[in-house]
Amino acid sequence: MACLSDEHCISSSFPEILSARLSFNNDEQENGEAQTNFTPSFPFDKVFPVYAMGLSKSEPVVFSSADSSDPIWDEVREEAKLEAEKEPILSSFLYASILSHDCLEQALAFVLANRLQNPTLLATQLFDTISCVIMHNRSIQRSIRLDAQAFKDRDPACLSYCSALLYLKGYHSLQSYRVAHVLWNQGRKLLASALQSRISEVFGVDIHPAAKIGEGILLDHGTGVVIGETAVVGNRVSLMHGVTLGGTGKEVGDRHPKIGDGALIGACATILGNIQIGEGAMIAAGSLVLKDVDAHSMMAGTPAKVIGYVNEKDPSLTMKHDATKGFFKHVAVTFREERCSAAPDQPKNDEEQR
Questions:
Q1: Of 87, 102, 152, 303, most Cβ neighbours within 10 A?
Q2: How far is CA 88 from CA 51, 75, 85, 94, 193, in A?
């Protein structure tokens, strides 16, 4: 068996130990001797360290003694129990990932550690690191719950809190970033960068650990999202797949976009430079934004232009990407009228040029 610890390799395999135990018991029965309670010592903590280590010594600090309720965690556990009954093949997975833990923080650390592990970045190491960060950071504890609520409320494909925690890579990449962000601010930039690299490889999402992201965030699908080092994303923002918050390539220092609260950024939208996207703004899918955007304005095109204004305070919550048919008809008529009014002046301009 491969070496599973830094101290020494496990000399005996699990089947060999079981075989020895059976042989020992059979010999006792043949000799008429009373069986003992002898059990071979098997290092479960080295073979299955994440499962065997139990709960961390650190306790969650998010709730006060006056109010120890956690409705989202309670709902996650109930959903996991129901799913285990419906799909027995997933019962072990659900137990290891959710039901064996006492809080959402521990369950999330377990899920992320097992998603991000590789041969040189072990799940046990990641579990300890992620768990330590989350269990001692009230801001993350609040954010992981508000983010889970955002996925549940805004993504029709998110069937439950449990599915967000276990399966949605947008949620996984966002919470992994939050851990990397804390490590970056603690001066552990090499480890934070290592986590960023693994997040990019596993989830296809590239968020610099130094970026600042608020709470109640939805990364729908997540694939292809790029958020630069000095980018700032406000609260209650929804970003679709393929969104880029990048620099222009010519600047240093503060060079990335600042997204206001409640903004809705459509799929494959590209926002470049140190520009402001106002609160409640909506950027249409595929748009290229190079200038500041006023609050509650609707931008579309390459380069993007104002095509209207959003009535909702937070379009990120309603997730209405498409304007009404009447709105587009109004835009088309206005565009045609502008072209017609400019057409008669064209011959005069030509004559003047001659």
A1: 152
A2: 20, 20, 6, 10, 39
- Asked if 158 and 238 count as a contact pair (C-beta separation under 8 A), the reply is no
What H or E segment, with its residue span, contains residue 305? Answer: strand 305-309
The enclosing H or E element of 277 equals strand 276-277
Cα distance between residue 155 and residue 169, in whole Å: 13
Residues 6+ apart with CB under 8 A from 96: 51, 110
- Tens place of pLDDT per residue across the chain (354 aa): 334 334 444 344 444 443 444 444 444 444 554 444 444 443 434 433 333 333 344 444 444 333 568 999 999 999 999 999 999 999 999 999 999 999 999 999 999 999 999 999 999 999 999 999 999 999 999 999 999 999 999 999 998 999 999 999 999 999 999 999 999 999 999 999 999 999 999 999 999 999 999 999 999 989 999 999 999 999 999 999 999 999 988 778 999 999 999 999 999 999 999 999 999 999 999 999 999 999 999 999 989 999 988 888 888 888 876 655 555 555 555 556 666 766 655 555 544 444
| pTM assigned to the model | 0.74
Q: Which two tokens stand for residue 223?
A: 């694939």
CA–CA separation, 61 vs 90, rounded Å? 31
